[in-house]
């Protein structure tokens, strides 16, 4: 016969089921959190490959160049975090690891195309600006981000011209020149636009700056098309980006829902592919 439980004795709590360990998230020092940077990393390379394929063919150096470029960006990201954090050891290991991998792949690229070494003179000051601002914890400023944009878009010229002096000698109507200028215009404008959607959300002065800059780029593209300098599709593209810059920041108030960074990013991926088509086949 069982003894009845004493009503004054508190019931023992049932043991909780052990939680299954979730996936450990990779730290920002190993995988950059700037998701908007992916289009900026890949689009200039894809434009360069497209232009080369339509010319004499894609040279061998283009294949190790892409991973060297990506690992170089990972190293730069970790290095900026290291400087921004006051030189915490956490960020030094990925910076050195990615830097070593990028160095090996970069060496292979230079072995296949030694003339590319001359571009170091163009990239060094641009990267230096980003590191300098990171050391002052100002890596999100227009100066820091703008220098990164200029450096990223130079990759098209790196791939399609012999060197910096050769690129400067090309006429304005040359496809590598037009492609590089168009990439600069799009990504520098997008830099302003994205700030109105995230960091400078609701700032009327910043919105005016963004829309004004986009309108100026559209006017410049329209002038170029009317004078025969650029294809007729250019002003249509920059009109699209101007409308996007003016409408998207106001969309929240109209529909009563916040536009998420993911939605902003997906929109830019679509526009980036449109620009790739424009520069490659228009």
The biggest sheet amounts to: none
Please trace the helix and strand order, writing H or E for each element.
HHHHHHHHHH
**N/C terminus separation:** 91 Å
Name the overall outline: globular
Annotation, overall tally of beta strands = 0
What Rg, in angstroms, do the CA atoms define?
25 Å
What structural class do you assign from the helix and strand content? mainly alpha
| Portion in beta strands | under 5%
- Helical fraction equals 55-70%
Keywords: Membrane, Transmembrane, Transmembrane helix
Region (Disordered): 1-25
Protein name: YwiC-like protein
Transmembrane segments: 37-55, 61-83, 95-113, 119-135, 142-165, 177-194, 206-226, 263-281
Structure write-up:
By secondary structure, the chain is an all-alpha fold. The N and C termini lie far apart (91 Å). Helix content is 68%, strand content 0%. It has helices at residues 37-54, 62-84, 92-112, 120-135, 142-160, 164-169, 175-197, 204-226, 233-255, 261-281. The model is unreliable at 1-11 and 15-20 (pLDDT under 50). It has 10 helices and no strands. The longest helix is centred in the N-terminal third of the chain and has 23 residues, at 62-84. It has a domain at 37-59 and 113-281. The chain crosses the membrane at residues 37-55, 61-83, 95-113, 119-135, 142-165, 177-194, 206-226, 263-281. This is YwiC-like protein. Residues 1-11 have a biased composition (Low complexity). Keywords: Membrane, Transmembrane, Transmembrane helix.
């Amino acid at each position: 016969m069982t003894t009845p439980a004493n009503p004054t004795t508190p019931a023992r709590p049932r043991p909780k089921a052990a939680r299954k360990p979730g996936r450990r998230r990779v730290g920002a020092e190993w995988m950059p959190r700037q998701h908007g940077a992916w289009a900026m990393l890949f689009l200039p390379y894809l434009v360069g490959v497209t232009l080369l394929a339509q010319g004499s063919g894609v040279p061998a150096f283009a294949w190790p160049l892409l991973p060297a470029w990506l690992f170089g960006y990972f190293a730069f990201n970790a290095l900026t975090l290291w400087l921004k954090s006051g030189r915490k050891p956490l960020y030094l290991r990925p910076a050195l690891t990615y830097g070593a991998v990028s160095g090996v792949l970069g060496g292979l690229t230079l072995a296949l195309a030694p003339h590319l070494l001359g571009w170091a003179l163009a990239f060094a000051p641009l990267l230096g600006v980003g590191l300098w601002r990171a050391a002052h914890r100002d890596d999100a400023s227009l100066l820091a981000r703008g220098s990164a944009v200029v450096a990223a878009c130079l990759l098209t010229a790196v791939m399609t011209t012999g060197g910096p002096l050769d690129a400067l000698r090309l006429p304005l109507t040359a496809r590598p020149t037009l492609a590089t200028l168009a990439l600069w215009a799009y990504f520098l404008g997008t830099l302003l636009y994205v700030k109105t959607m995230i960091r400078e959300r609701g700032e009327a002065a910043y919105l005016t700056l963004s829309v004004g800059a986009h309108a100026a780029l559209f006017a410049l593209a329209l002038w170029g098309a009317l004078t025969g300098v650029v294809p007729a599709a250019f002003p249509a593209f920059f009109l699209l980006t101007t409308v996007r810059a003016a409408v998207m920041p106001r969309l929240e108030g109209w529909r009563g829902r916040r536009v998420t960074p993911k939605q902003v990013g997906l929109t830019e991926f679509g526009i980036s592919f449109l620009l790739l088509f424009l520069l490659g086949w228009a």
